[in-house]
Structures are given as C-alpha cells and as structure tokens.
Design brief:
The complex is a heterodimer of chains A (about 575) and B (about 600).
Chain A lengths: L4 E3 L2 H32 L4 H13 L4 H13 L4 H21 L4 H13 L5 H14 L4 H14 L3 H14 L4 H14 L11 H17 L4 H11 L9 E6 L3 E10 L6 E5 L2 E3 L4 E2 L6 E7 L13 E5 L2 E8 L4 E5 L10 H17 L4 H15 L4 H14 L4 H24 L7 E3 L19 E3 L20 E3 L19 E3 L8 H10 L4 E3 L11 H8 L4 E3 L8 H4 L1
Parallel strand pairs in A: 11-12, 12-13, 13-14, 14-15, 15-16
Antiparallel strand pairs in A: 2-3, 2-10, 3-7, 4-5, 4-8, 6-7, 8-9, 9-10
Helix pairs in contact in A: 1-2, 2-3, 2-4, 4-5, 6-7, 8-9, 9-11, 10-11, 10-12, 11-13, 12-13, 13-14, 14-15, 16-17
Chain B lengths: L7 E7 L3 H12 L4 E4 L11 E2 L1 H12 L17 E4 L8 E7 L12 H6 L1 H8 L6 H9 L6 H6 L6 E2 L5 E2 L3 H8 L8 E3 L2 E6 L2 E4 L4 H6 L5 H17 L14 H6 L5 H11 L8 H13 L9 E4 L5 H12 L3 E3 L6 E5 L2 E7 L2 E11 L8 E3 L5 E8 L12 E5 L9 E6 L11 E8 L4 H12 L23 H10 L5 H4 L5 E9 L5 E2 L7 E4 L9 H14 L15 E3 L19 H11 L1
Helix pairs in contact in B: 1-13, 1-17, 9-11, 9-12
Classes of the chains: A alpha/beta (about 575), B alpha+beta (about 600).
Chain lengths: ~575, ~600
C-alpha cells in the first residue's frame, strides 16, 4: 500500500550511520590535506577560511584549524574594514561552535583572540553570552574563565560580578566555579588591611554565615566546604621575612618565616661594612625554601668578637650580635603569631558545628571545620579537644586517615614549638626539642628547629618521609628510633650531625647505610634492631668508609645514644 | 444520517478520557485495528478542558437529556443479548455557577484619562495573545475592570479544566510520555512554588536544595533536620530499618520522634508528603520519596502542569493512535453492547453493528448490568476566576497548595492556582482549582477553603478595588525590579487583600472507583473517570493493566518514531536532488543529513 507507515529498523539506522561516518572521514581527510597544503605553500585565501570553517563546525576541538585560521588572519592583506568584518564573522562562528560544544578550550580561546584584535569589542554582548551560557550550565568553568576575561577587559565593576555570583550560588550552590569567583572578587572589593584575613572582617562574617547555610543544607557537597577553607585560612604574618640567623667562622644559616629564593642581588652579608662574597644554597636543593646555608672558605671571613655583622635581605637590615650561649653571631626574633579575629563570631559558628557533629556523629566536615575554628579561636585552649577530634576523624574517615594524622602532627609540633619558645623567651637559646612518642607522621615548622642541636623524634611514625629533616642544619644529635623507617633514600645530608640513632626501624639495605655514612660526618650510629644490622661484613664495610665511626649493631651493655642525652 | 464505519475491529474504545486514550494509542501502536468513539463533540469526557464558551455549552448540555436508543433487535443473533449503555456513572451533580461582577452596563463610566493611564498595562497584557484589529479598537473603550461581558467576549483566552491534574516530574505519565515519544505533542510549565498555610499566612515551602539554602526564615539546624529527614526518606524508602516500629503508626507519630521544630514538621507533613493526621508512615514516606524523586528535573518544584489544561493530554494519545491508523469518530454514541457466550461480541452504534475483540469503555457508557459497585470516591470541585494571586509574588507563579481539614468533618483540599502564562486565563486574572473528596455538595465541602483564601462576595460595581498589584497587569518592568529589591519576606500576603472572585463554579464529579461485576464479559475493560489523586498515575497504571490483559506479550507504547525515521513505502529510492540550490550556511548541516538519509 502506498504511504503506509514503515519504520526503519535499528539495523538499517546503524547501516546509515556507518555510511555517514565513512563519508565524514573522507571529507575530513580531503579538507585537512588541502588546508595543510595551502598552509605549507603560504597561500592564504578565502578557501582556507571556508574549508576550515566547515570543519570546525563539525568538530570545534581540532585546535590546529583554529591556529591556521589565526595565521590566515595575519597572512592576508586586509583593508581595515574587511579585517573587522572577518573578525566579526569569526565571533559568529565561535558562537555556533560553542552551541555544539560549550566546553571546547580552543573555541573559547579563539573568541578571546578575536576580541583582542577587534578595535571596538562589544563587551556587553560578550557578557550576555556568558550569562546565557551559565544559565544553561552554571558549572561550566570555561565560561567562568571567559567571563573573568571579559570583566577585566570591559572594566565591569566588581560589585556587579559579586551579585552575579550570589545569584548563581542561590540557584545551585554546588558550584566550585562560582564560589571560587567570589574568592577572587571579594579580596578586591573588601581587602583586609592587616592582610591576616582573606577579606575585611565584617564581610568575612557575612560570607562565613552564607557558607554555613550551604554546609547545613547539604554537608556532602564539597564545594561549599572548600570555600569555607579559604575563608578560614588566616595567615600568620610577621613583618620580617627572616626569623633567625646563626653565623660562625665556618658558615651561616638563615631561617626564614616563609619560603624564599636567595640570590646575590636580594641578599648580602656584610662584616664590618665589608661585603662578603657568599654563595647561599638551599637546604633541600629547591629554588624556594625556608632555610638557606652558606659555607665560608677557610679564612674567608675575618671575624672578631666586636665585628659588626649584618645581613641585608629584600631591603631589610638584620643585625647579628655575638651570643655567648651559641658561641656564634646571631639574629633572633619572635615566632610569628596568629592574630585572633572575629572570635565572638567564630565561637558562635563553632557552637553550631559542634551541635551538628553531635546530631550527626559521622559528619566529618562538621568535625574538621570545628577543628579549624578552634584553631583560629584559641589553639592552646582547645589543644586537647582538637587532638581528640582528629582522633575521631582518623577513625570515622579511614580513607583520609593519613591526612588527619599529618594534620595532627602539625598541630602537635606547632603547639610544642610555641610552648617552648613562649617558655624560654627570645633571648634564651633553645638548643633542643623533645618530641618522642607523639604519633607524628610528618615534620612541621621544622624551620624553627634549624638552630637546635638535639632533636628527639623517637617513637613516632615518620616512616620514610625524612626529606623535611633537611632543615635541621645545626642538629648534632638526632634520634629517629622506632619510627618504622624502611628506607633512608630521602634522608638529607646534615653537616652538623654527629650522633644518629636509627634503632628499631625496618632498615634492610646495607647500601643505604653506607651511603648515609658517606654523606654525613657521623661519629656514632645506632642501627640496632634493624634487619640490616645482621648483614655480613657490615662493620668492616662501615669502618672502611669511616674508621672513626662508632656503630651500635647489637644490643649490648654500655653506651647508648638515646639514653645518654 | 450518520457515517458508516468499517464493521470489524480488534479494539473498540468508547470515550476519550485519559485511560481510554492511552489504551487506544497503545493498541494502535502495535498494529491493532482501533475504533475510538466519543458521544461528545470534544475530546476528554470528564477530563476535558473548555474555553469559557465551551464550558457554558457543556453546562447547558448536561441539563438536556440524551436521546433514546433505537430498536436494535434486528442487529442481534438468536443467542445474543443486548445491554443498553447508560450514562448514569458519569453524572455531574450540584452545578452552581455564580457571577460576582456586573455587566458592562452597570459599571461606572471611566474618564478617558483613566483609560490612558492604564494603557501601558493593557498593552503588556495583550502581549503574546492574538491581536486582532477588533481587540485594539476594543481596548480603547474597555475599562480596566472586568465585567461579565468582557469575560464572555474573551472566552477563548480561558482554558478551564474539569479535572485539573499535575504531573510528577518523574511520575508514571512523564516517563510514559518520554518513552513513547508522545511528549512532543504536548507543552508543559513547571509549578513554580508549593505553598502552605502556617501561622495564619501562606508561605512558600522550601522544597528543593536551592530553596532550603536560600530560605532565610529557617535556621541552619532546621535546614539540616529538613534535609536529613528528606534524604533518609529518599534514599532508604519505607522498608528501611529507619522506619522499623512505625509500620502500624502514622507518619505524624514517626515525625514526632524526630525532634523536629514545628516549622520543619509542618513543611514535611503538609507540603511535601501532603499527609493528614491519619496518613500511615509507609504512605507518608512513599509520598515524600515520590515528591523528592521528581525534584530537580524540570523546575523548582516536582510538578508539571500541561499547557492549555489537563484535557490536552488525552488528545496527545489520541493523536498517536490516529497516526498509527486508529479510526476516530466523535459525536457518536454507544447504544449498547452485544453479549454472547460470555463475551462482548460487538457494539451497536448509530444503527451499525461493529464486531470487536476487545471493548474498552469509559465509565460513562457502561451498561448497569455489568457494574458491581458504583463507587464512593466522589469528587467535589470548585473553579474560580480571580483578580489576583492568593499569594502575591515578584513574578507570576503557578502554585500548588495542600490544605488539610480544619475539622474532622472536612476533607483535605488541593488548590492549584494558574496564571495567564499557562493560558488558563487572560492577563490580569488567575484561575483557581480546588478539589477534595465529596462528603456533601461541592459548595458545602469547599466552603471553608473558599472562605479562608478568597473574597467571594458580589462586587459593588461602583467601588473600585485597589489596582491589583499583581505584576501580570500593572507593574512595569522597572517597578518590578524595585519590588525584587525590597521584598524577600512574604509578609505582603497578609497585607494584600484576598483575591476577589469574579466567577465561580461548583460541581460534583462521579466516583472513580466503580467496579465491574464478575459476570461482566472478560473482554470488556473499564476505564475510570478522573480520580482524587493529584497526578495521572492512576489512569496510566489502569491503562497499562488493561493493555496487559488484552495483549500480555506485546510492548506497551514503545517509542514512536520521529517523522524523519518514517519512510513512505515506494519512496525509498532517493528523489531527484535540487541542484544548483546551495543550502544556506545555517541549514547546511541539516540538509546534508537529510540527503544522506534519503539515500
């Protein structure tokens, strides 16, 4: 019968698709060949525009074609009018492509390029394009990026953008891009004068409340919690970059409050007004680090007790004084402290999150935020609670237990360091720190241990993450007993180190021990209770490298590094 | 006098209600010969949507008795019995129509100046509607106030539902419309807010995550409680251990154990679960789950409203049925059915005997001999045209309100308020539908809700009410902006007067739970009329069950092909191409596809 309904079967449709695909491939190959040929021969004409246009419409992600198009813009001699006309056509083309694929890097990039080359870009249209695009998908970060570009170029006032971000968050707060956008705009609109809070105090409160609303609505949505991290990230600041300096005839060690890069132009050493040629090296061979050392050639520095020693760094003059305690020239300053901000408001928030954690004992975000709030309010007062809550987190959020353990280590070390320094006062030299059996999994604030001579880290869980020990540049006696260490590969070279205990670890490589002894100038090494201590010939080999070295291999009565301190 | 129809069918469907239409489409879709009859000149039966004039005619027609059936004995064979069709199960009762405004003649004459000031509002009001010259000239003379004449004159701008129903965004009907590809015949609008009455005023219920987040009246702890409760209903369902021990208890008793604040409890009970004190925990949890499942798919609430009214939907299915060859005949009455050997063999209609395998019949045409119970779930309906929303907002809203009974003698009422953008009414007006289970008459059953939310007194033509501050009529775009800035709270709902009713209609629809008797022929399938539920799920499930009973091995409404997937036989070879016709830039791609398909 004529005109009766007959539906194509799926097999037929499949067949049709196949033919279609094959055709596309042929078209694509022919097109690419032609374009590449013309490009090679430098023939820039309308055809190259036309061909590439048809192809990017089908697949906007072939970035080479966009490159070719940009080359063509430069290759053709245009009249100003035609050039602008062609650029405007390019805008239309990119818009078509974005409709097909709103997440194409190359198309967004091309659009930026076009606007950069237009004499009078129409920013209003671009902004409305962004708005339209973000209405369709409020989490398209390509578009958020482009919006930033447009806003910057067009000089759109920040408060308008702030409002925009608020409306986007209200429709769907599960939006990393929009929260992030706020974190870019807010510090520009409301900077904190002291630089300690990310934004001005009153706005800080508002934002904390907004984000609290989101976290209570859906605690499983991480975007809000991340923004909250940013808000609660108060920076401890000190107006001085250098924290401390120790110098003697042999070398100088500088510990900074932050990671810096030293070179001859930003850092100079002067003794009695004479510039000393110093080659600073970082303690861990990285360009940016917080402990820098320089060694002097013999008789390189003519130091007398009454010499005036100064270090100039970044335009600040640091005077060194002779310190009897250290038998060295020293510059000392306070530990940078955390300023308290919005304590009342943070306390209210803390109450809320504590209650939330009570209602939902497994809510890890509530606990973690509580911890960060407590730390911001009064780290000393809440120290025990913080550690307790961290232990809970380690238990309930097993996947991230290592993260919490590291966090716990940081808090413990910071607490101890602050405690010691507060106790002894600035003028007194602190030559040792005792941190045994504290479940430490990582070092923290190790820069403030760089002048200490005795460091006891026995009975922790540092494992193989030993690279941070590099800051312990003055350490003579170090105990790493019972730390579950399997490998010494990351153990740094420490010039001052003489006594090292590695007792009761899981060391098994003789080569590593030999390497350690080669690199460090040790007088005593305790490697009892390690698999490696049973290695044949170990003693002979060690003596060959370092005849003076006293090695403890098996438990025997007599001296023992750990107990001798 | 009547057209002669082909005399043999696989399925004869009588009545174009929702269930009937779905079954007709499903049968036609798998290639069955379908005849679909309706005695009315419109589609939908009691599910229909009328314009204002159509509704008046419908009311008028109900008063005149149906014509009698002619003698049919000549069409019967010896061992056959004739059962006369009856309309006793589709009786609409207690129709009360009232006007609260006057005719033009009784309205005070307004000065030209007044008319001009209103000009801008009226222009906006006519946007989107058809604009004839007549309209324009009329506008100059029309005063702002609504009169009986004006409503009657603009009758085409009304779409009035007998059985207004919403669709859950993930309900049976939406899934069916999508899977069967029938959705392309219909348009929808999302219900924009779910309201509830609390502490003496109407408030919008935060039901989506965004709502909960943005809500400023609920504390962070209430937010958490609400989200927590919703999540556990949603993820775990009624069989979760969370609800152990509450199987025999009410939802309210369960909620009472959760230490919720009164506000959160109210939101969950009355707006989300739409439960009463008697609702069981299982039902409450399932309703909450159903509600939440449908959130976030199409709009801010879980509900969709069919543009131009619920009556559109049966027609969509009829259209598909017709596309696949179903025969349609309106204004054709079922006279009765022919039964022999325990089967329905044929129907008699318009002096014709039409043989069939299956008879699918709406409840309005059933012969009483095969009905066992006439049902109890009758429906009370009220329809109001008002001059403003029950809850003024910054933009036009489509509102759902569930209002639980104030006293034990009353029934819970669902209220749906439609604005002009749904095409239910012209700009400047609102259409309110209220529905509840019948206990007395519709007017009596619904009186307490009418009194609570509406001003249903005759309007004195000489007193001009404050201009409605509803944005649909008077607020200019710039002024709207101001309102947005100022109004976060919904306090204005207290201050602004109740909507004035311009016109109202009460009616009682028949029960939807009538049952066939056991002696009914097994190939007769009953389709119920509109039920009390908010959505169409009952009709969809009934249609599925009927189809399953008729054709247990066949697919129920598999996806219908798009037009481009259909090949007309004899045209499979490619036609001559248009050469020299270069396609335009934008169309190029499509054209390529088209040519390729033709090949």
């Amino acid at each position: 019968m004529h005109g009766r309904v007959k539906v194509r079967t799926t097999a037929e449709q499949e067949e049709l698709k196949k033919i279609e695909r094959a055709k596309k491939v042929v078209q694509y190959r022919a097109g690419i060949d032609l374009i590449f040929k013309k490009r090679k021969e430098g023939i820039w004409d309308d055809e190259i525009f036309l061909m590439s246009e048809q192809m990017v419409l089908k697949n906007p992600d072939i970035y080479t074609l966009w490159n070719v198009r940009r080359e063509a813009f430069g290759g053709i001699k245009w009249s100003q009018e035609d050039y602008v006309e062609q650029l405007k056509k390019e805008l239309i083309l990119t818009e078509h492509c974005l409709r097909a694929n709103p997440k194409s890097y190359s198309v967004w990039h091309q659009r930026c390029w076009v606007n950069d080359h237009l004499p009078e870009p129409d920013w209003a249209t671009e902004l409305s394009l962004c708005a339209k695009c973000l209405n369709l998908d409020e989490r398209n970060f390509h578009c958020w990026d482009y919006r930033q570009y447009v806003v910057k170029k067009a000089g759109i006032p920040e408060d308008e953008e702030f409002k925009f971000s608020t409306t986007k968050i209200e429709t769907n707060f599960s939006n990393y891009s929009s929260w992030h956008y706020r974190s870019l705009i807010l510090p520009k609109m409301f900077p904190d004068e002291n630089g300690e809070l990310p934004i001005r105090e009153d706005k800080h409160i508002e934002e904390l409340d907004l984000v609290m609303n989101a976290t209570f609505t859906d605690p499983n949505d991480t975007s809000a919690w991340f923004y909250q991290r940013w808000l609660l990230n108060t920076r401890s600041t000190s107006n001085k970059t250098v924290w401390g300096i120790r110098m003697n005839e042999a070398r100088i060690v500088i510990a900074f409050n932050k990671e810096v890069s030293l070179n001859k132009s930003n850092t100079q050493l002067k003794v009695d007004e004479n510039l000393i040629d110093t080659e600073f090296r970082s303690c861990n061979a990285k360009n940016y680090t917080s402990v820098w050392i320089a060694t002097f050639p013999e008789n390189g520095v003519n130091l007398k007790r009454n010499s005036v020693v100064e270090v100039l760094h970044d335009g600040v003059d640091y005077q060194l004084n002779w310190s009897l305690d250290d038998q060295a020239w020293a510059y000392k300053s306070e530990l940078p402290c955390n300023q308290e901000h919005n304590v009342k408001h943070l306390s209210t928030q803390l109450e809320n999150y504590k209650q939330l954690a009570e209602i939902e004992p497994d809510n890890k975000w509530a606990l973690l935020t509580g911890i960060i709030l407590m730390k911001n309010i009064d780290a000393v007062k809440y120290h025990a609670t913080i550690l307790n809550d961290l232990d809970t987190l380690i238990r309930i959020d097993k996947k991230r237990s290592q993260y919490y353990k590291d966090l716990r280590s940081k808090y413990v070390i910071e607490f101890m360091i602050r405690h010691i320094f507060a106790d002894k006062g600035i003028e007194c030299e602190i030559s040792q720190i005792v941190l045994p059996c504290m479940n430490l999994t990582t070092l923290w604030m190790e820069r403030y241990m760089s002048f200490m001579e005795q460091i006891n880290l026995a009975g922790n869980q540092l494992g193989d993450s030993l690279q941070k020990l590099c800051a312990l540049q003055s350490c003579v006696k170090l105990s790493l007993s019972s730390n579950g260490i399997k490998s010494l590969q990351r153990f740094p070279t420490l010039e001052s180190l003489r006594f090292l205990s590695l007792r009761d670890n899981k060391l098994s490589s003789l080569d590593e021990i030999l390497d350690l002894v080669k690199r460090n100038n040790l007088t005593e090494l305790d490697i009892r209770d390690n698999p490696v201590s049973n290695a044949t010939d170990i003693l002979t080999q060690l003596t060959m490298i370092s005849p003076e070295l006293k090695v403890f291999l098996t438990s025997q009565p007599g001296s023992n590094i750990d107990s001798s301190s | 006098m009547e057209d002669d129809l082909p005399t043999e069918y696989d399925v004869v469907v009588v009545g174009t209600g929702m269930t009937e239409s779905i079954v007709a489409a499903a049968a036609s879709r798998i290639g069955k010969r379908v005849l679909h009859l309706d005695s009315n000149e419109y589609y939908g039966g009691l599910w229909a949507t009328f314009n204002f004039d159509g509704l008046q005619k419908w009311i008028e027609d109900l008063k005149s008795p149906k014509q009698n059936v002619a003698d049919t004995t000549s069409l019967l064979q010896a061992d056959e019995k004739f059962l006369k069709a009856s309309n006793q199960y589709s009786t609409v009762e207690n129709i009360i129509e009232k006007w609260f405004i006057s005719n033009d003649a009784d309205l005070p004459v307004l000065s030209t100046k007044d008319t001009q000031t209103d000009g801008s509002g009226d222009t906006a009001a006519n946007d989107g509607a058809e604009k004839s010259d007549e309209d324009k000239s009329e506008k100059k003379e029309t005063v702002k106030q609504w009169s009986i004449d004006r409503i009657k004159k603009e009758y085409r701008k009304f779409n009035i539902d007998l059985a207004p129903k919403l669709l859950f965004a993930r309900g049976e009907l939406v899934e069916l419309l999508i899977s069967s590809n029938i959705a392309r015949y219909a348009e929808f609008r999302a219900v924009s807010r779910v309201a509830t009455y609390m502490d003496g005023k109407l408030t919008q219920v935060p039901c989506s995550r965004a709502d909960v987040f943005a809500n400023k009246t609920v504390s962070v702890f209430e937010k958490r409680m609400l989200m927590q409760l919703l999540t556990s209903c949603m993820e775990q369902g009624a069989d979760s251990p969370e609800f152990n021990g509450f199987q025999d208890k009410t939802f309210l008793e369960y909620l009472d154990t959760k230490n919720l604040t009164p506000m959160v409890r109210h939101y969950v009970m009355q707006a989300i679960a739409m439960a009463t004190d008697k609702t069981s925990t299982r039902d409450g949890v399932n309703r909450t789950k159903h509600f939440l499942n449908s959130l976030g798919r199409y709009g801010n609430t879980p509900f969709l409203w069919p543009m131009y009214g619920s009556g559109e939907l049966p027609q969509c299915f009829c259209r598909l049925c017709a596309v696949f060859g179903g025969v349609y005949c309106l204004k054709r009455q079922l006279d009765g059915i022919v039964v022999g050997d325990g089967k329905c063999k044929a129907i008699i209609t318009g002096k014709q005997r039409l043989a069939l395998e299956h008879l699918v019949v709406g409840q309005g045409h059933l012969p009483p001999e095969i009905v066992s119970s006439s049902g109890e779930q009758q429906i009370s309906r009220g329809i109001f045209i008002t001059d403003r929303s029950i809850m003024q907002g910054e933009k036009e809203n489509l509102t759902l309100l569930y209002y639980p009974p104030e006293e034990t003698s009353q029934e819970a009422v669902t209220l749906i308020e439609l604005g002009p953008s749904t095409n239910a009414c012209p700009q400047g007006l609102f259409m309110i539908h209220v529905t509840c289970k019948r206990t007395k008459t519709a007017e009596e059953d619904l009186a307490y809700v009418t009194k609570k939310f509406l001003h249903a007194e005759v309007l004195d033509p000489n007193v001009t009410r404050n201009a409605t501050d509803s944005h649909t009529q008077t607020v200019s775009p710039d002024k709207r902006h101001l309102q947005e800035g100022s109004g976060e709270t919904k306090d204005d709902s207290l201050e602004s007067p109740k909507p004035q009713v311009l016109w109202s209609l009460y009616l009682n629809l028949p029960a939807s739970d009538i049952k066939l008797s056991d002696s009914a022929p097994s190939n007769v399938h009953l389709c119920s009329g509109p039920d009390l539920d908010l959505d169409f799920d009952f009709a969809v499930n009934q249609a599925k069950a009927i189809f399953e009973a008729m054709y247990p091995d066949e697919d129920f409404l598999p996806r219908a092909p798009d037009p481009e997937e259909i090949v007309l036989e004899g045209e499979e070879a490619p036609g001559p191409q248009f050469e020299g016709d270069k396609p335009e830039e934008g169309e190029e791609k499509q054209d390529v596809e088209k040519t390729e398909k033709e090949e």
